[in-house]
Amino acid sequence: MSTPAPLPLVAVIGRPNVGKSTMVNRILGRREAVVEDVPGVTRDRVAYEAAWAGRRFTLLDTGGWQRDARGMAGRIAEQAELAVAAADVVLLVVDASVGVTDADEAVARVLQRSGKPVVVAANKVDDVRAESEVAQLWAMGLGEPLSVSALHGRGSGDLLDALVACLPDVGAGATEPSGGPRRVALVGRPNVGKSSLLNRLVGQERALVDPEAGTTRDPVDSLVELGDKTWRFVDTAGLRRKVREAKGAEYYSSLRTAAAIEAAEVAIVLLDASEPISEQDQRVISMVIEAGRALVIAFNKWDLVDEDRRAQLEKEIERELRRVPWAARVNVSALTGRSVQRLAPALEQALDGWETRVPTAELNAFIGDIIAATPPPVRGGKQPRVLFATQPAVAPPRFVLFTTGPLEAAYRRFVERRLREAYGFPGTPIDLAVKSRERRRK
């Protein structure tokens, strides 16, 4: 199979709070990028696939670009500069209602030096009265500014026509191996080191890292070479609380984290080994299980764990993680790189379990032996019988038992345990359903 040509890459650039993420959502036709009426909501480079007039391209949302920025703002600006360097076309978003600021002029000079095609979006032109404010944007020297309202959609078609006209036939970026890499969601509560681990695996600062919890807002995709294989890792926002309890940008970040888990094949749930296992850690694990994804549990910050903490942690694992004894556990340190390569075999094992299928004849013989040795408990004076068993699906493994009556939850757990003892199913939840076929009365 031939390797697909890479899509052209469009970087969306501009100073903070000019409406870049709103523009991204307008181009995509759906609410993907996190938007909130405060500057600095977008921090990492976040890629989305978009299309217009039959042309597909990758849209790269970036954090606000500030002149002479320091600290976190400086690092956000650095991510934006990296996006420009990687892009085939740049979409510069300017707030037409404010005019050309010093920051806009600084961005324009950088874009002029880059030699990349630039489309200037004069945003927040919500009606005809605001059109007169657009002319002053010619002063940036980047060509004709196009009037648009990302919020209301005004002028977005003309903007997209201009953008598509600048696209090369093929993007300059690297392609993925044929067949595509396995997709891994990196999840956990805030500040457990997800972005640090991603950067360690990638070998560069792909995701922003800061001692302040909640630095990552949007899922961030990266191709990672691990264990002689390419994986697509998705760093996600830390899940601080239940989605329905979150507000603002945190709410939409939580939704996208849940969507990233759904889109993944396997999830690495990262826990802080130096701290007690929390209720939120368990909630994240539950999200992965409920989504039916393969699971690897990685204990990060192992360099901070002493002998006393290790003994305490073993007790916590036995108590707090007793419902997921099948999940592979790996002790790592994103800071030092300790044992991060051990993630590869754990991921492989989890995916193998996730895709394991038991032949129908073998499954029925096995279930028959279980029933003969340990029959189901009697319910209402009758003992249910298992008539037939089948595995209709994998990823995750799903089993259906056809019976003459309901099976108690404890007995279903017993059957699942025996299935795991016989076939392993490491690193994956098992869905065991019962379909009761009551006999018809004559």
What is the H/E string? EHEEHEHEEHEHEEHEHEHEHHEEHE
Shape assignment:
elongated
Count up the domains: 3
User: What is the fold named in CATH at topology level of the largest domain?
Assistant: Rossmann fold
Our Rg estimate from Cα atoms comes to: 26 Å
Total of helices: 11
Number of strands: 15
Question: Would you mind describing this structure in some detail?
Answer:
The protein has 442 residues and is an alpha/beta fold. The protein has three domains: 9-166, P-loop containing nucleotide triphosphate hydrolases (Rossmann fold, 3-Layer(aba) Sandwich); 182-353, Rossmann fold, CATH 3.40.50; 360-436, GMP Synthetase, Chain A, domain 3 (2-Layer Sandwich), CATH 3.30.300. Helix content is 32%, strand content 21%. The chain contains eleven helices and 15 strands. The strands form three sheets. A six-stranded mixed beta sheet has the order 2-3-1-4-5-6, with helices on both faces. Strands 8-9-7-10-11-12 form a six-stranded mixed beta sheet, with helices on both faces. A hairpin with a 4-residue loop joins β13 and β14. It is elongated and about 85 Å long. The relative contact order is 0.09. Residues 1-5, 34-45, 69-76, 171-179 and 205-219 have low confidence and may be disordered.
